[in-house]
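Re: duplicated header lines in exported structure tokens

Our pipeline writes sequence and tokens for each protein into one text file. With two proteins the header for the second block appears twice in some exports. Here is an export where it did not happen, for reference. First protein block:
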Amino acid sequence: MKKILIIDDEVNVALLLSKFLTRNGFDVTTASTGSIGMEYLKNGDFNLVLCDFRLEDTDGREMLKNIKTQYPKTGVIIITGYSDIKMAVELIKMGAYDYITKPLYPDEILNTITKAIETHHALVEDKAEPLSHDKSSREIKKQVFANDFVTGTSKVSKELTRQIELVAPTNYSVIILGESGTGKESVAKSIHLNSPRHNQPFIAMDCGSLTKELAASEFFGHEKGSFTGALYTKIGHFEMANGGTLFLDEVGNLSYEIQAALLRTVQERKVKRIGSTREINLDVRIIIATNENLQEGIQKGRFREDLYHRFNEFSIFIPPLRERGNDIMLLAHHFLKIANQELGRNVTSFSQEVIDSFMSYRWQGNIREMKNVVRRATLLTEGNEITMKALPLEISNFKIPVYDYTPQQAEVHDIKENRHDLKNAALEAEYETILKVLREVNFNKTRAAEILNIDRKTLYNKMKAINIK
């Protein structure tokens, strides 16, 4: 359970906030003064501090300095009124993760806190590891990766690590390409951690969930009252990331109008909040990620070519998990260790049958899918070893098919070699398409047949032939 310390001299505010966060699964402690808060920090290992900017005995600036110096693993969010927003932005540059304004809105608070705990933990974990003095600077630098980034031993993983180390010290904008779930944000964090900006903010933004109306406010911020529903002044992600790194995930989903505004901001290195006349100078490194083909988007008129070239100063491709060989089990053991810590378990290994399944499975959801599979299996396992019965059906029943045609019949076998055969590739694609649709409809075969544009009997025959039960 994540531990949060609330420091606020308004007792009613602290009490209401404490009750709300407790209901949402956090372990909450409250303090009415800065000195009491620092005493609590001495005696407890807190993940996050929510500190009011104005306290009876001190202020948010001093509290932030003290917490960062004495407890670097603890993230800080500043609680402030409208009149202190300018100062709150300065505190973000000093190391605070974010700020929230009064009056407090539950959804905003919960979203900010969740992101703060995840991001701050990732950015400080590796910095806290002691390093021996006899290591070369290059060896030390290789250890500085985001907490959820695992340095693999396969050829493709070593090349990925080399590219991160190569581009990180520069100020280049970077495009990270890869399938969904391959760890694009982890790579972005690792670039940030290895850059001269590593002590500045790393701000991540999911462009895939933004509507056209919301995007401008999220990117550039807005002033209170600038439009209907603007109940408070909001700092945009560009301003929050000033001096550091802004990571834009699934940037291909942005509307063409927002892309134009984004291009102007990137070119001019200035940002202006909605409803404001004041321009703010920017010094932000931009890293974007996408699982789409942006060049195809350019050809179809969905993505601006000039914006693409602004971003594409350096590109990194993250290979899918199925192409990473021995890294598969390296990652599996990494996630097993994390799951043991989360669940208080002592599962130590995988059965050989599970290892074989992991190595042959296609991992369409990549690293994200593997993490979820291992966590689930750890929860279901009663002994020390994960066995096949703890795996979901799509993995335990998985078999890559190939037909050996005879004049009379077709038999199904595992593909053990000659994987580049055109016949095998077509069957593999058919298998993956059918399984994907079945998952989407929760294995409703009638609905799956409709989507695949085949009748149910044909679907049943295909499922039987390629061993989907």
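Second protein block, exported in the same file:
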Amino acid sequence: MPRLIERIAEAKRGRIDARRSAVIVAHPDDETIGCGALLARLDGVQVIVVTDGAPANGIDARTHGFADIDAYAAARARELDLALSLAGVASSNIRRLGLADQGAAHALPRLTRTLASLIDALGLAAILTHAFEGGHPDHDAVAFAVAAAVERLERPVEVVEMPFYHRAGDDMVLQHFADVGPCEVTLPLGEAERALKARMLAAHATQAATLTPFSTAFERFRPARPRNFRALPNGGAVLYADRDWGSTPGSGR
């Protein structure tokens, strides 16, 4: 059977049997940024969202006009449900692990064990997830936890990476891999695919300002590479090094 990355790259853009596949991402809306258009082709796919999208410090909740972080998290959950319903993902295939936004890096052992158990219980053969790129601490934590969970298993699991954003000098680069290399698959999206992705992005209404810069013109994927997770990603140019996003490299936080 062709690997998932090979099915994604097929020119025909046909339906893909994804009953043994999962999209594992850090936040509600990451699924849409990374593979919103592709999701509509993935029949039976599981979507596993690690955090609830609501940082525990409450700043984002207040900024968006919510009384508390629980109300904000509930709103983000509704947005996720709407976005995934547009892509045809069954509500029974959505799994939420419930960590606080910006908290995944502080729960790596538990997160790794949880993902290993889920991957095993669901019989997953392929996973779409974050590249380790130094963009957001939760993204990098999920990239690590997926890799570590797969390593714990006694069978192969295909891992496919998606780019979100990374630092390049003083700029933030969106939807391009930080380290360009072979085997990348870029899918230019057709008119209907772009319209679907735009509707999915709009479903995440609380995140409208954040999501505006992301393109609906393409989606990118590649097979995950072996990583030294002890070294900082992107050559040490880590975007969250000077942002209050819950984790700062080298600080012990």
